[in-house]
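Researcher: Please translate sequence to structure tokens.
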Amino acid sequence: MVIPIIGLSILLVLTSTSPFSLKGGCIIVDSTRRGKRFPDSMSKTIPIWTCVLNRSIFNYLNTFSNADASLVKQDSNTGCNSHDWDCSLHLPLWVSETEKAAIEDRLEGWTKDLETSGADIAILASCLKKPLRPLWISQKTVIWINEVPDYDSWDFTPIILVSASSTSGVTQHRTTSEFSWNYIPGAGDDEESWARGLSPNLFWNHAYDLISTGPDVCNQKVADIVEKDRVYRARRGQDAPQITIKPSISESSPCLDPLLCSDLSNITISSSDEERGIFWLGSTNLALGSSQIAAECSSNVDCVLNCDQWPISVHHQEAEAYLHLPIVSSKMDRFSLFNNLSSAVNFAKSNLTKGRTLLICCHDGEDISVCVCLAILISLFNDEGLFLASFLCGLLG
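Model: Translation complete:
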């Protein structure tokens, strides 16, 4: 049975409620991504549906208390009567009071949705001796065993939410098998992090070939397929520019806000050496490319800003001509890009003021480097795409 809550769907299998209620609770183990000790499913979603279930059971007990007095008698089969049944929302301390209040405003509606969905609340009421309540445990939780109260003294059925993964990021795991593997928490549905550019159509067109290849050369096989497809599309003019500054404004669609419609027609995307994959942004002295291209063609530019996670070897002798900012994907560290933007802009400002050309690169030249380049354009260029040289000279002087 699927119950919609906060734009998501949780699978409520009522028959599975009986085992953990009879055993006195359950433990739910999950992984979390770096920088976030508990995922939202543990911080909000599970606490919400435990509260909704508690409220539905409470309403059921009150409705049938006059018809069947046994439902409200506290005996060996029932731990709490309806008057002692906890219906409050229990959230961890890191959820703000504002967010908690917003959730509480919607609890009554979700409870009614559950009650009208056809769920057998009577089964829940007969199985659960005590109301549900979530508890949170992570690797940083300290529990003194001798201070844990006896379960019989608890007035709730615990739903213990365990965040088992370390928040130190991606680690290489060695196994007893022939192959090692990287575990990226929460990346099961993020195909861009593991598909290596292989689209569904490409996969099915080469499915048998890929499967028969085996794990030893699978990644190389995928890379060959993706590269051949890219070359095939590029030769037929199907490869669109990597970035687009601004579409032309139609006369029939006038802009309502002049600040949003500043003329950037002076900036164009071009590639004087397209087979090498360096894309120049008009006369800005800025270029984009992959880190591999930057390593091969660094002699064609005055300085390089490397935003890849790994350093590269460049031909420049001056230290100020190369800066490595190891920016990782937002899936690994949501603040990595933000925390490095200031250094990137300062490096660009220092070199562009001297009239140097700057190549900004990342792993594929299409993601992080584009974001950094956009930040530089916004910070150091005016609406016409002209470098604010005089203004910057005043600041630097």
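Researcher: Any highlights?
Model: The chain is about 35% helix and 15% strand.
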